[in-house]
């Protein structure tokens, strides 16, 4: 099993199912997004740049989507934290995934790659 698949399948439930669902949502959003293991992260590349990546918050143990050019996106649910370029969308693994919210943020991000 490669590192990318290992990232998803070695997680405990409900984190594993949440991450796999997020992966599917991201890939279904745009066929040009390419999953790739990059900088030891499960990234989704667009035009050779990181569009977003998935990770798990150390404190809450909630998965999040880090938006590659998130610093340029104004959305009330994106968290800046101490990061310089990305902003995070936290996902509660025990709740329904907010697909419409994810798509709205992705729509704003896609404009930055044109």
Textual characterization of the structure:
The protein has 114 residues and is α+β, with helices and mostly antiparallel strands. It is built from three helices and five strands. It has helices spanning 3-9, 15-29, 99-111, and strands at residues 34-38, 41-46, 49-56, 63-67, 87-90. The chain has a five-stranded antiparallel β-sheet, with helices on one face. The longest helix has 15 residues, at 15-29. The radius of gyration is 13 Å and the shape is globular. The protein starts with a helix and ends with a helix. The mean pLDDT is 95.
Give a short synopsis of this structure.
The protein is an alpha+beta fold.
Which features characterize this protein?
single chain; 114 residues; alpha+beta; 3 helices
Main pleated-sheet profile: 5 strands, antiparallel
Query: What's the shape?
Result: globular
What is the CA-CA span between the terminal residues?
A: 35 Å
Strand content: 15-25%
The topology string of helices and strands comes to HHEEEEEH
What ranges have pLDDT less than 50 throughout 5 or more consecutive residues? none
Q: Which strand order do you get reading across the main beta sheet? A: 1-2-3-4-5
Task: Kindly state the number of beta strands.
Answer: 5
Helix content: 25-40%
Name the structural class. alpha+beta
Q: C-alpha Rg, in Å?
A: 13 Å
Task: Summarize model confidence as the mean pLDDT.
Answer: 95
- Give the helix tally: 3
């Amino acid at each position: 099993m490669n590192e990318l698949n290992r990232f998803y399948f070695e997680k405990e439930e409900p984190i594993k199912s949440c991450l796999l669902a997020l992966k599917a949502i991201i890939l279904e959003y745009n066929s040009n997004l390419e999953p790739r293991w990059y900088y030891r992260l499960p990234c989704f590349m667009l035009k050779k740049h990181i569009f977003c990546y998935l990770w798990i918050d150390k404190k809450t143990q909630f998965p999040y989507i880090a938006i590659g050019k998130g610093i340029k996106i104004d959305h009330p649910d994106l968290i800046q934290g101490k990061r310089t370029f990305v902003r995070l969308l936290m996902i509660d693994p025990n709740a329904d995934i907010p697909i419409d919210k994810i798509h709205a943020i992705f729509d704003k991000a896609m404009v930055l790659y044109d």
